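Sample entry as discussed:
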Amino acid sequence: MLDSHPGGSSAAPQGAAWQVSNYLASMDRALLLFDFDAAGALINANDNFLAALGYARADIAGLRHDLLCDSMDEGKGIASAEHIWARLRRGEVFSGTCRYRKQSGASLWIGRPTCRCATKAAKCAASR
């Protein structure tokens, strides 16, 4: 667990809320984080995800997953997006390789994004 704070002194109080906040901020800086609603519309994406795909936040809000991603593979061959979304809605985890379309039209393969539905939204995280 992270046990230092910006300033370097260990004298500051460091409760659980501070540690969780610091942990989440570190994840936001290091990972591509993106959330879809249960119907597959993008509801949130961090700056890393936007930069990797070349989109502005206003351009991508509400965009459906099938318009962003045209290939999902878990090492068992390409699976249909409908099949994977049905699994996510049942609470199962998806971890595979996905080909996303950048705004420029080029492809970006995101290796091993991990997606899981939580409270009717698919929360996804992937390394760059």
